[in-house]
Amino acid sequence: LMLDSSGSMAAQLGGQSKMEIAKNVMTRFVDTLPATANVALRVYGHTGSNAEVDRPVSCQGTEQIYPFQPLDAAKFKSAIAGFDATGWTPIAASLEAAQQDFAQFDGATSSNIIYLVSDGIETCDGDPVAAARALHESGIQAVVNIIGFDVDAEGTAQLKAAAEAGGGVYYPANNADELDRIFRENFNWSEWTTYYNCVQGESTSSANKQSGAAYQQANCVQSKATQESTKILTELNADFRTYSSCADYIREQAQARRDALSSDAGGDLDVRLEQAEAERAAAVTAAEQERSPELPTATP
Questions:
Q1: Are 113 and 83 in contact (CB under 8 A)?
Q2: For residues 224 and 297, what is the distance between their CA atoms, to the nearest angstrom?
Q3: Which candidate in 13, 111, 130, 136 could, as Cys together with 167 as Cys, close a disulfide (CB 3.0–4.6 Å)?
Q4: Is 90 helix (H, G, I), strand (E, B) or coil?
Q5: CATH H-level, domain 2-187: superfamily
Q6: DSSP state of 52
Q7: Ramachandran bin of 26, using left for φ above 0, alpha for ψ from -120 to 50, beta for the remaining angles
Q8: Which residues are 145's β-sheet partners?
Q9: Tens digit of each residue's pLDDT (9 = 90 or more) over 167-196
Q10: What is the 3-state secondary structure (H, E, C) of 207-225?
Q11: Between helices 153-165 and 128-137, what is the axis angle to 10°?
């Protein structure tokens, strides 16, 4: 999570400051994350003031105040309550700092996602579009979603471009209700996790049933083939005088037929097992793609 703490976030919106609204929404949001998720909070513009004299200090003010870890609600609430809206807006510097934040999480094995809330454009001469693109195209493969909170047209254009460059989605929120709804409806990981687990469980159960049926059929064919071969050899031994001239041929043919039936059954078993696993994997992948930040369903 990344939160704009520049001076403009102190402005009132519906009887509350934008900062207070954003803090409340983010605090509720983290409670919906899966227990296995590692959460971090980085803020920017929380040092100095928005006066020109403090610009150098404020533009360096980007800080990870809650490091990546499974959610500790009490610690998170304490961290997010510990700063105010005061300074300038170093969005690019914050995205660049996120490279180090995510360094321990390889994009090949982790879903690295940023939710950035800002009420305006970069004011520290950085390039948030380039910074978001670099973060997304790095080995971290972070997806940068940006929520523009009560943003003007100029800010909307820049923040939307940054989100698109970062592989994510730009969401406009004009008031507290819209900001809350964006987090509840578009970023509801708890609801998605329940759905994903259901799909995974159902598809695994179906695959297990198909595999069980395939094993049962293969065992049945192999058993019948063995019984047939045993019966032929038993009759051959019981009446050896009759079949003595071709006993070796009969044995070879009986063995060959048994082996052929067993081989066909085994080959069919492998095909059916592979098909069952492919169907299971396809169902799970489809569920993942439904929630993939690379394939957002929200309107940019």
A1: no
A2: 54
A3: 136
A4: coil
A5: von Willebrand factor, type A domain (3.40.50.410)
A6: G
A7: alpha
A8: 115
A9: 999 999 999 999 999 888 777 665 555 556
A10: HHHHHHHHHHHHHHHHHHH
A11: 20
